[in-house]
């Protein structure tokens, strides 16, 4: 019983050697780095100034506390949930349709997706992607105007076609699709879309330029946003997509 108790207590110190190595490395950086207290101490020491003992002790205590903080920070930041966007792409996907007992190839379809990446080693749960709004470029006035897609729509994740998922690796969020039978119309890849939003895209010209504002959030994770410029163009399976950055 006593042996088991001691074994469990000492197991807590299994990583003490690793902690001490990290502490030693960060302590050297703090004590002899570019911080103001370190610079003052090193300069006085190099000039052979008689530094009071209490000041030396205070400096060493400060260096130990700050070194411990930075050692903790390295691991803490690594495990903070954080997301970032990757590239935007268009992928062609086959479809099928069922007529009675017969399953046959369906319309040809392309899907626009944006990659959502894990920026740290932490898993992000309850991850949700939303289309916040869609703008249309008004050439005569040289600015964006809001369309009927003026409130959030829950987008679906690739492969699972669900609005919420846990991210343990990078995943792609589907934005919209176009098929060869829809007369160049954009169809939002979402669980539910209001009729007025569908009608807006159906009435649009293939040369219209849109801006899609997208947000992705997760539990205990700050949300991220991106804007994507979209123009269907002359070929239904080759829409022109690109990120719009704030500097633009």
Whole-number radius of gyration?
Answer: 28 Å
| Residue fraction in strands | 35-45%
Decide which structural class fits the backbone. Answer: alpha+beta
- How many domain regions? 2
The run of helices and strands is HHHHEEEEEEEEEEHEEE
Q: Per the principal axes of the C-alpha atoms, what is the gross shape?
A: elongated
Q: What is the number of helical segments per DSSP (H or I, 4+ residues)?
A: 5
Give the helix level as a range of percent.
Answer: 25-40%
> How many runs of DSSP E, i.e. beta strands?
13
Low-confidence stretches: none
Query: For the residues shown, what is the average pLDDT?
Result: 80
Major sheet size, sense and barrel closure:
7 strands, antiparallel
The span between the termini is 69 Å
What does this structure look like?
The chain has 248 residues and is of the alpha+beta class. It is built from five helices and 13 strands. It has two domains: 77 residues, no CATH class; 162 residues, no CATH class. Strands 5, 6, 7, 8, 11, 12 and 13 form a seven-stranded antiparallel beta sheet that branches. Strands 1-4-9-10 form a four-stranded antiparallel beta sheet, with no helix packed on it. Strands 2-3 form a two-stranded antiparallel sheet. Helix 2 crosses helix 4. 20% of the residues are buried.
């Amino acid at each position: 019983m006593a042996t088991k108790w001691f074994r469990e207590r000492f197991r807590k110190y299994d990583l003490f050697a690793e902690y001490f190595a990290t502490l030693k490395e960060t302590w050297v950086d703090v004590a002899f780095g570019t911080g103001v207290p370190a610079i003052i101490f090193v300069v006085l020491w190099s000039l052979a100034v008689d530094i009071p003992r209490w000041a030396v002790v205070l400096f060493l205590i400060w260096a130990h506390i700050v070194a411990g903080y930075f050692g903790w920070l390295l691991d803490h930041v690594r495990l903070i949930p954080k997301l970032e966007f990757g590239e935007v792409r268009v992928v062609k996907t086959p479809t099928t349709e069922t007529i009675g007992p017969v399953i046959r190839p369906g319309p040809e379809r392309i899907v626009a997706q944006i990659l959502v990446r894990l920026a740290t080693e932490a898993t992000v749960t309850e991850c949700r992607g939303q289309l916040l709004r869609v703008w249309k470029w008004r050439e005569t006035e040289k600015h964006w105007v809001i369309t009927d897609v003026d409130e959030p729509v829950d987008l679906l994740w690739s492969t699972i076609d669900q609005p919420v998922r846990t991210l343990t690796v990078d995943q792609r969020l589907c934005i919209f699709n176009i098929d060869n039978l829809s007369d160049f119309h954009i169809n939002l890849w979402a669980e539910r879309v209001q009729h007025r939003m569908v009608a807006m895209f159906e009435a649009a010209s293939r040369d219209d330029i849109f801006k899609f504002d997208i947000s992705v959030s997760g539990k205990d994770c700050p949300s991220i946003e991106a804007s994507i410029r979209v123009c269907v163009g002359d070929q239904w399976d080759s829409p022109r997509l690109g990120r719009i950055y704030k500097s633009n």
